[in-house]
Amino acid sequence: MTVLDVQSVTKVYGEGAATVHALRGVSLRVQRGEYMAIMGSSGSGKSTLMNILGCLDIPSAGRYLLDGVDVSRLNDRQLALVRNRRIGFVFQSFNLIPRTSALANVELPLAYAGVKAAERRRRARVALDMVGLADRADHEPNQLSGGQQQRVAVARALVTEPALVLADEPTGNLDSRSTEDILGIFDDLHAAGRTILLITHEEDVAARASRLIRLFDGQIASDVQQERVLHEPV
Amino acid sequence: MNLFEVLRFAVRGIGANKLRSGLTMLGILIGVAAVILLVAVGNGSAREVAERIEALGTRTLTVQGVGGGSALTRQVAEALDDPVLAPDVTSVSPVASTQATLTYEGTDHSVQQFVGSYPSYFGASNSPVGSGSAFTDDDLKQGRRVVVIGRTVAEELFPGADPIGMEITVSGALFTVVGVLDEKSSASGFMDANDVAIAPLTAVQQALTGYGPFNSIIVEAASSEKVADAQSQVSLILSQRIETAAGSTSQPYRIQNASQLLETQTETADTFTTLLGAVAGISLLVGGIGITNIMLVTVTERTREIGIRKALGAPRRVILTQFLAEATMLSLLGGGLGVAAALIGSNFTIVGVKPVIVPSSIALALCVSVAIGLFFGSVPANRAAGLRPIDALRYE
């Protein structure tokens, strides 16, 4: 079943002489349960693509169907609902809310979804437990290491049980050990049948995915299914 | 996402920067407290004036000579006491008053008003005798040097002693104290109503002022309803008796009654209150601008946070409500504390005036502070809510 259907999407920034074509017609279909990595040099448009897929940005032209629904037809409120229910976003720079406990950060999407406080707390604890941070629930982001912060962010992305997890260079700011933690979680998610899209610079991170897309200059240069290279636990 | 959740976010937002929130609230606090307190001071002074005028007696008319004229003679005063022409006048008390220094056994006290009048003055001027007795018509006829002193004078000259029967020297003349006036409630403001001495007119004229024209004549009407009638009767008699000097357009006397005086003074006090309120209102407005400023800074500073919240699925309405709630809470809290500060402040005497809180000023100041929060908060809140998530996330 097709989760994402991107049809010749373009994205243009700026006007006149300063025009930048970030995407020059990208078409892509992603099936449920796929684990896809997107690679490309900086400026190749991979972050722009990710932002459009995450409904944070709108394409200049082309169609983007999420679960068969044309996103461009949705109004502000419906878009908020889509971001909240269908998509879990993990950012390179974690993007946790400062001065707010890990638990409250994880609860946030549930709060916007209108889940009751007790239920919310329970689900947030389960999500934190899944990323192995149950004992850090009351810590604020500045009391956590980078790897821990990213695990909180992943827990936050998972807590609404979205069909699609988008990760924009989730391991870009992390050391190898934390990278391994995060990728381990993604492996588990993939095993549980979630659709995962991941942007990365690193070949060995991309090697964990079942499908690899290389972007070059705003266009898809290659799109291959690959054998997943699973990291052997040491 | 119910309202309670949004309010919790707002409280957390305020709590995140306590110093800044505190200072912003202080601006509103000062504004609200200033409005309530200054209006209370204006109101208090208006009340005081009204009380003082009521203490003069609402049944009395005061005929005053204007421009140092010699209009108010003994003949005029006697003419006013006419049961045929002025049936509504019950008593006429000519007043000769002067400033005098009272001395008792080496203690000096300078009294603002040393009044010479008739025994009827005590009733007409609403100054009942507390201890001892007033002087009598006989004292007046004989020109006996007896005096009834006010409470302040008694305390100054005879601390802890009974002044009745004592002899005091008034600018060289000996007077015997026969009574002490009751304390007057309106004793505050610029003049101390208890700082008086009242003696028979004849004695005062003989010893102190001489037999010139009177300073004023106090006319007592039969009742407060008859004041207007009495006033027209008095003015008729006066117009017959006193000739306006050739070439002068104004009369050499003026008739005032307490209610007229009350009206004029109330108008003055109202103007005063409005002025004070306006000045305080400006400070409230400045406080409101402070809220806008701080909310703009907050929105700018938290642009990324807004982006994150939107990426997590916060609808525009929730972001708008959160920031509006923050601004309104700041102003409401500041306003509430301002009301508390004003209520505490109103217990103290401010520039000689005991403030009297006007309840509607509390409601008004609170409403205005909330309105300020909503109005001045809406600009930054709208900015926050209108941000596209990607722009907000990219903001550095």
UniProtKB/TrEMBL annotation, chain A:
A GO cellular component annotation here is: membrane protein complex
Q: Where is the ABC transporter domain?
A: 4-234
Q: Which domain of life is it from?
A: Bacteria
Q: Which Gene3D superfamilies match?
A: P-loop containing nucleotide triphosphate hydrolases (3.40.50.300)
> Keywords for this entry?
ATP-binding, Nucleotide-binding, Transport
GO molecular function list: ATP binding; ATP hydrolysis activity; transmembrane transporter activity
- Keyword ATP-binding in record: yes
Q: What start-end ranges are recorded for coiled-coil regions in this protein?
A: none
The family database entries (InterPro entries) matched by this protein are listed as:
AAA+_ATPase (IPR003593), ABC_transporter-like_ATP-bd (IPR003439), ABC_transporter-like_CS (IPR017871), ABC_transpr_LolD-like (IPR015854), MacB-like_ATP-bd (IPR017911), P-loop_NTPase (IPR027417)
SMART domains for this protein: AAA
Answer whether the UniProt record assigns the keyword Transport to this protein. yes
In its UniProt entry, what is this protein called?
Answer: Macrolide ABC transporter ATP-binding protein
Query: Which species does the entry assign this protein to?
Result: Phytohabitans suffuscus
Query: Which classification does the entry list for the species?
Result: Bacteria, Bacillati, Actinomycetota, Actinomycetes, Micromonosporales
UniProtKB/TrEMBL annotation, chain B:
**InterPro entries to which the protein is assigned, alphabetical:** ABC3_permease_C, MacB_PCD, Macrolide_Exporter_MacB
Q: Which GO terms describe its molecular function?
A: transmembrane transporter activity
Which keywords describe this protein according to UniProt?
A: Cell membrane, Membrane, Transmembrane, Transmembrane helix
Task: Report the GO terms under cellular component.
Answer: plasma membrane
- Subcellular location, in the record's words? Cell membrane
Q: Please state every residue range assigned to the domain named ABC3 transporter permease C-terminal.
A: 278-386
Source domain of life? Bacteria
- Give membrane topology per the record: Multi-pass membrane protein
Q: Does the keyword Transmembrane helix apply?
A: yes
Membrane-crossing segments per the record: 21-42, 275-297, 318-344, 356-379
Q: Which family does it belong to?
A: Belongs to the ABC-4 integral membrane protein family.
Q: What's the protein called, per UniProt? A: Peptide ABC transporter permease
Q: Which organism is it from?
A: Phytohabitans suffuscus
